[in-house]
Amino acid sequence: MNLCAYVVKIKIMKNILFILMLFLTSGIFAQELTKFSVQIGEERINAPVSVALDGLNYSTDKGSLALYEVTANGEKPVACQLESGHSAKLWFILKGISPANSTRNFILKTEKETEKPQPKSEVVKRHKDLSLLMNEKPVLSYRFETTFPPGGVNPLFKRSGYIHPLWSPGGEELSRIQPPDHYHHYGIWGPWTLTHIGDREVDFWNLAKGEGTVKFASFLSETEGPVFSGFKALQQHIDFGAQGPDQVAINEILDVRAWNGSEEVYVVDYTTTLNSPLPNGIMLDAYRYGGGIGFRATEKWHKDNCTVLTSDGKDRAEADGSFARWCIVEGESDVSEGRSGILFLSHPSNRMHPEPMRVWPLDANGGRGDMFFEFCPIRHEDWKLEPGNDYTLKYRMVVFDGEMDAEKAERYWNSFAKMPQIEIKE
Predict the structure, then answer these.
(1) Using the 8-state DSSP alphabet, how is residue 100 labeled?
(2) 251 CB burial (10 A radius; 0-12, 13-18, 19+)
(3) What Rg do the C-alpha atoms of the chain give, in angstroms?
């Protein structure tokens, strides 16, 4: 046997040995936990999905969870993130468009980590703000310290516990706080307006009345990872008019989550859970403002460059007081596409869904037509918060540059409205 043939033979034997070692050790470095399929009902786009881990032995002592989608070209790694708690869930994103009535198949494994991946979705806390970042770009900031009004303005307008700024993917700042026409407007927020505690009226929205306010109390959790980042904050509706010290009328847990689904849009969930510690609860009276999710838009937007489209096809002139599953609010911006906006989604589990809206008319603010939008669950009917009960409202914001049409909005609503069916394969 000549030298070349001998070298070739040695290389072949090494390759065979390497493959054999991989086969023998695969059970050590990777172990299959389960296979499952996602049954797509309605068409979806970049949809966050969770699979329950109840009944699976997924102890981290055995390695990290690794998810793969089974495709025609083999197994494709899928970013996933564990949410532990009373019932553990594994979250991931159904990337791209999932056609109606289709099926996508997945394998969940445990694997030994060689290097811990850095999260793409991050939480950064500074001395006044907690910010959510996506691939090192800011998505939003939450102000947990008190913001005071400008000098010479009534100090009752101070406030904490609100989202501002909210940025578009291209870096356009879409929210606004303390506009001179309404110093009590704070970016994205949701205080209740006309309420009653017994026979006494309390307004938590119009701060200058001095009847109440909403303030940040504490952070309950902060989360970051490859699929989402977010936080839970305790906010308190404070009643100033009670006998003796101020009292908490409503405890609110605000759960904000930014999904790492696409670089083209930001997808942000805004979930608020209300609980009144008052012995007789609190009445939220029907009114055109209050609760839900309110948005004061950038000062750049006015009647000549800002539009509205609802799920029922109504424009800005028709939308106020009507009901919708979703609403697109968009306007002129300095990004390369020339426009930016937010698709607001109301969850089917919300009170009064499809949900009534407050949309400022075209002649708002002295005819300039500034933009204010709100999903307002008490717009047409009172709502009594009984003591000892939790009440939850769920919203999603899809923040975009360029255009958003009704067809794409429907895909996003389908992605939010109902979790697809998960079928575990034995």
Answers:
(1) T
(2) middle
(3) 25
**Domain assignments of the chain as residue spans, ordered by start:** 19-109, 121-422
For 313: left if phi > 0, alpha if psi spans -120 to 50, otherwise beta; the answer is: left
The pLDDT tens digits along the chain (426 residues) read 453 444 345 444 545 444 444 333 444 456 899 999 999 999 999 999 999 998 887 776 667 899 999 999 999 999 999 998 888 999 999 999 999 999 999 999 998 875 656 668 999 999 899 999 999 999 999 999 999 999 999 999 999 999 999 999 999 999 999 999 999 999 999 999 999 999 999 999 999 999 999 999 999 999 999 999 999 999 999 999 988 899 999 999 999 999 999 989 999 999 999 999 999 999 999 999 999 999 999 999 999 999 999 999 999 999 999 999 999 999 999 999 999 999 999 999 999 999 999 999 999 999 999 999 999 999 999 999 999 999 999 999 999 999 999 999 999 999 999 999 999 986
Strands (DSSP E) contained in 224-277 are: 228-239, 247-259, 265-275
In angstroms, rounded to a whole number, what is the distance separating the alpha carbons of residues 410 and 394? Answer: 17
Which residues, other chains included, contact 231 with Cβ-Cβ below 8 Å and sequence gap of 6+?
123, 130, 132, 142, 219, 220, 221, 222, 223, 255, 256
Pick the CATH number of 121-422 from 3.90.550, 1.20.140, 1.10.287, 2.70.98: 2.70.98
Torsions phi, psi for 45 (to 5 deg): -140, 125
- Which CATH architecture does the domain made up of 19-109 adopt? Sandwich (2.60)
Picking from 336, 341, 334, 328, the residue whose alpha carbon sits closest to that of residue 175 is 341
Cβ–Cβ < 8 Å for 128, 143: yes
The span from the CA of 173 to the CA of 338, in Å, is: 13
* C-alpha to C-alpha distance for 378 and 93, rounded to whole angstroms: 33
